[in-house]
Amino acid sequence: MPTLKLALIHSAAEHKQAASNRAHLLTLFRQAGEAGAQLVAAPELSVSGYSFNSRQDIAPYAETADGPTLTALAALAKTYGFYACIGLAERDPRTAILYNSAFALNPQGELICRYRKINAECRWACPGNPLADNTFATPWGRIGVLICSDSYHSLMPRITALRGADLLLIPANWPPTGLDPREIWRARALENGVYVAACNRTGMDLTMDCRQGPSAVFDPHGATLLDRSSPEAQLLLLDLPLNADHRLQSHAGRRLDGRRATDVNDCCLNLAGVSDLTAFLRLPPPGVLAIHCLPAASEALALAAVEHHLREQNTTHTLHILPAGTYSDVALERMQALCAASGNAIALWRQGPEAGWHWFAGGQAPRHWPCNPGDATPPVLPQVDCGTARVALAPLTALRHPEPILAVAKQGCDLVVVSDDWLSDDDRLLAGVRTIDALAVAICAPNGAGVWMTPEGHQRWEELLAGPGSACRYLLDTRRTRKKRFQDRVDYDRLLRDDDATANSPSCRQP
Q1: What is the DSSP secondary structure assignment for residue 60, as one 8-state letter?
Q2: Does the global pTM surpass 0.85?
Q3: CB-facing half-sphere around the CA of 27: CA atoms within 13 A
Q4: Alpha-carbon distance 278 to 286, whole Å?
Q5: What is the mean pLDDT of residues 5-25?
Q6: Based on the domain organization, do 249 and 293 belong to the same domain?
C-alpha cells in the first residue's frame, strides 16, 4: 500500500532563545529529510517561544518571509525534497504589523501558503484575514493549515474542508491543562471527514509547562493514528495510507454532502453588539430548568419512567426527553395528559410512517413537526420555549455538523434536544464539542443518554451520562447559556455558497 511519510517535530522552544531554537529545529528538519519524510511540520511560534506581553516584547523575534528561518528551511526542503510547514512570529515589512503565522514551503523551497492566525494573541498579534486561502496542493491531496486555538472554533476547520482540504495541519502551542485538545482535534476529523495532524510543542515556556503536551494524528473516521507526548523534543514519524492513485482518501465530500442549506444561513448573524440577549431575542426569563433524560428500551418503560418521576418529584419546569421509538397514538395521548396535569414537558421523536418530533407541555397544545424522508428540502430545526429555556429539537445527524447548532445558538437557543435510537461514542464527543457554541445539549436513546453543558473559560464542558434503564438528570441554569460569544472572523461567503452545500439533502435524518 502506498503511503505518505509525515513527520511532526515535537520541539521544545526556549523563550526568546531564537538562535538556539532555530538551530535545533533545522537539525530536526534535516533528520526528517534523512528519514525520508515527505511532509514535515513544526509547532506554533517554534523559534521565538510563546508568551509575550506586547508588540515591543516580541518584535526582536519576529521574522519576514525572507528571514533566516525560512531561508534555511527552503534550502533543506530543496535538498531533501519535502514539503514543510512551520509556525513563526511574522513581521510584515510593508506595515510592520505583527502576526502569529504559519508558512508552508514546497520541495523547490518556494512559499506556497502563508496563514495568519485568526484567534490571535491580543497583546501583540493582528488577526489574519479570514478570506485568505489557507490550503495548498500536493501530489497526495490538498493540505489545510490552522494554528492552535483556531481549531477550537468549529467554522474554521469546516471552511478549510470546504476549500478542499484532505488533511488539516495544526501547528500548536497547547499546554496540557484544562480542555484536552485531542478531543477537539478528533472531533474536527469526524465532522469534516478529513485527516487531522496536530504538531504540538513540549518543554517549558515562560509561563507554561508543556512537557506533557500531546501531538496527535486522526484519520477521517476519528481513529487515532498517533498520540504522543514527551518532556524532550522528538521527531515523530508516521506513514499515512494512500489509495491506489497515491492520494489521501478523505471522506470530506461524503461528510459535506450532509449539510443542509437551511441549517447554515443564520450562522452569519452578528450578536457582538447585543448586551441583553433575553430582551433582544425575546427569550424566556433566565433561570433553572430541570432536564430528565429517560433511556428506556420500550414505549411501556418510557411511560412508566415518566409516571414514576412525576409521582416522586412533584415539580414543574421539568423537561422529560424520551428515546426515539414507534410510539402508539394511545401512548402519545397518555403523555399529553401527564403534561397537562403536571405542568411539565415531554419531547420525543416518533419513528415510522408518521415520523417526526412530538412536544407536550402543560398549558400548551401538543405540537408535531413531521419529517417526510422524501422531502427535497427538510424543515428548519423546530424551536419551542420551555420554562426558562428556548429549546431546539434536532436529529442526531445535526450534531455531526457545526452549522445547525451554531445557527440555533445565534437564534438564542439555550438547549438542543435530541431523541434517537442509538447514541455512539463519537456522538457523545460531538455533543460535548457543540457546547462550545454557548448552549447545552441533551440526548436520549435506548442505549444511553447524556447532558452536556457549555464550558467555563478554557475548561472542558460538563458531561453527565446515564446507561439504559437509568435517568440522566441535570439542572440547566440558562443564565449561563445567555452569555454567548462567537468567533465571527470567518469566510461566510465560502460557508454559505451552495455550489457544494446540500440544499437538496434527501432526509433530515440521514447522515
Answers
A1: G
A2: yes
A3: 10
A4: 8
A5: 98
A6: no
